[in-house]
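User: Here's a chain of 191 residues. Predict its fold as tokens.
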Amino acid sequence: MVAALSCFIVAVAAGLIHDDIKEPRRWPGPPPETERARNGWGEPASFVGQYHVHFLKNVGPTRSNGYAEFAGERFREGQLTMFMREVYEHRPHVPGGVLVLNGHTHNLVVYLSELSSDGRVLYATVRGGTYEGPAIGSFGGVKRGNRIFGGLSLRGLANVEANFYRYSKNPATRSAGTSTGSAGSPTEVLP
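Assistant: Prediction complete.
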């Protein structure tokens, strides 16, 4: 009885028990974590298109991974194509991308899937082989106008930092000027 009374007195002193029984105190839970938007990187018109990739430093893979044939390669440039793709028939299209890293003798092709954003930072899962292939890394970047300043973290590669310069809003063609791409709409080449 004495122990119960002392526990009650300590609880009242700590504010866990108060005299307003009709309106109990509600303690807010922890603040919600920043949730990444699953709609990709925003409106498709803001990111769909073709980008030139300029590496901030010359980077190549190591011999200790599954990319042994690329071990001697130093990637010089690259091409990123972002587009909306159909995953399931009669369902909304989802954003995706193909990144080609060009070297002197080899090209490495990886796929960006599961695009998300927390409002400021862009995220994507990097997959090898296909969009459903194994996750081999991650992508993160910040979009400013027609540029994405970001980087890749691939298994077996050092972190690759690059600038992605958007030069076309049409992912279907690589032509310059205002010609008709395979989608039938004129290609808008950006300055």
